[in-house]
UniProtKB/TrEMBL annotation:
Gene3D superfamilies referenced in this protein's UniProt entry, alphabetically: Alkaline Phosphatase, subunit A (3.40.720.10)
Protein name, UniProt field: Predicted pyrophosphatase or phosphodiesterase, AlkP superfamily
Domain of life according to the entry: Bacteria
Species assigned in the record: Gulbenkiania indica
Pfam families: Phosphodiest
UniProt cross-references to SUPFAM superfamilies, sorted A to Z: Alkaline phosphatase-like
């Protein structure tokens, strides 16, 4: 299937679930921390330090959006770049809802079934944003947040599988969200106010006495700035240097505290020119084929097509959008393994819709509902470009 993927989507980078992805990082990390056996292959190569499981503290720091390409141009001479040991692929789609859920559960998207910023609930045809947990469609849905959480969040937490106490450190505004509570599992949840505060709290956690433990820290601020200002925006560079200085200091503390720092990202980024943003409303015949709004992401749209309109949709997608997107069958993508190996979540086929529009180059696709305001994002992710898919594996602290 790998050769067929290359033929149908030339130049695309797909997840390497055979040993080179975030999924495999979590499989090896789990094994080092006493987890029950993982169904996924261990991480290939020598990216993880020998004796990782014997360290008193192991911290996994996820810097949202800091893929290998952004790291390369933001800080080629940075402390973070100097400590990079390897590179990994993200998952598919290369986006926070899918990849952070993998990092917090150890499961591939095929198992946890959170496939993008927007997810279709198959039993009600609601289109839901699982991270902030709101219903996009239909407007005025009576579904409560707790009910939505119960239908979306079923994958056991990574923290529940290892034999160490765990601390999850996140921004205060999400530390107690339904998503965070579900995916932290039995971990102690802590909030922070700024990235500087996050690293200070990490220093204190490494210096605390007590049993060996695992720390998961999530920093979304760089991602937010790249969405707003582009990958090379001045505020992005300023924040990167703040994070890099704080990381260098934390690495010194870790080396004195029998601690290992593992730093990675959930995905990378590409700049998205406004001239290459496609509004579905500009293609009314194509939009008329849909039974529901788009789900997924601007770089990978899951299209829920009326059964009688499938042939028309395929024809229009090729003739009107073929320059900007590959139109693919979700079942073919499943069998190709891009969401991870089987067995798959029973809801996954319905959530993937009837066709997938996977954007080429730096094109994006959006639809805007009647109650929504049009939103342009100068930089995006979720696609299969090298810039979006490759993430660094950075190792520091008490390492050989």
């Amino acid at each position: 299937m790998a050769s067929e993927l290359s033929q149908r989507c030339p130049g695309a980078v797909w997840p390497d679930y055979a040993g080179g992805s975030l999924v495999n990082l979590m499989a090896s990390l789990g094994a080092a921390l006493g987890a029950s056996p993982s169904p996924y292959a261990p991480l290939k190569g020598a990216g993880l330090p020998v004796g990782l499981g014997q360290r008193r503290s192991v911290a996994l720091i996820v810097i949202d959006g800091l893929g290998e390409a952004p790291l390369g141009h933001l800080g080629p001479d940075s402390a973070l770049a100097a400590a990079q040991r390897d590179r990994l692929t993200s998952v598919f789609p290369s986006t926070t809802a899918a990849a952070v859920t993998t990092l917090m559960t150890g499961a591939a998207p095929g198992q946890h079934a959170l496939t993008g910023w927007y997810v279709r609930l198959e039993d009600s045809d609601e289109i839901v944003a699982p991270l902030p947990l709101y219903v996009r469609h239909p407007a005025g849905s009576p579904s409560s947040r707790s009910a939505l959480a119960g239908r979306l969040f079923g994958q056991p937490a990574f923290a529940a599988r290892i034999n160490r106490p765990t601390v999850v450190l996140q921004p205060s505004y999400i530390a107690d969200s339904e998503y965070s509570r579900a995916h932290a599992g039995p971990a102690t949840r802590l909030g922070y106010d700024t990235p500087e505060d996050a690293f200070l709290r990490l220093e204190l956690l490494l210096q605390e006495e007590g049993p060996a433990r695992f720390i998961y820290a999530y920093l979304p601020e760089l991602d937010s700035l790249m969405h707003d200002h582009g990958v090379r925006g001045e505020p992005v560079a300023d924040l990167f240097h703040v994070i890099d200085r704080a990381f260098a200091r934390l690495a010194g503390v870790a080396a004195q505290q029998d601690a290992v720092l593992l730093v990675t990202a959930d995905h990378g980024f590409i700049d998205a020119p406004e001239a290459r943003q496609i509004d579905l409303e500009q293609y009314p015949d194509l939009a008329a084929c849909l039974a529901l709004p788009l789900s997924g992401e601007r770089r990978v749209a899951f299209c829920h097509v009326r059964p009688e309109a499938l042939d028309t949709f395929d024809h229009l997608a090729e003739n009107e959008l073929g320059h900007a997107a590959w139109c693919l069958e979700p079942g073919w993508l499943l069998e190709a393994g891009v969401f991870g190996p089987p067995p798959w979540h029973p809801a996954l086929p319905a959530r993937l819709g009837d066709r997938v529009l996977l954007m080429k180059d730096n094109y994006t696709l959006r639809d805007t509902l009647a109650h929504e305001k049009p939103l342009y994002l100068p930089a995006v992710h979720a696609g299969v470009s090298a810039e979006e898919m490759w993430v660094p594996l950075i190792v520091a602290g008490c390492v050989d």
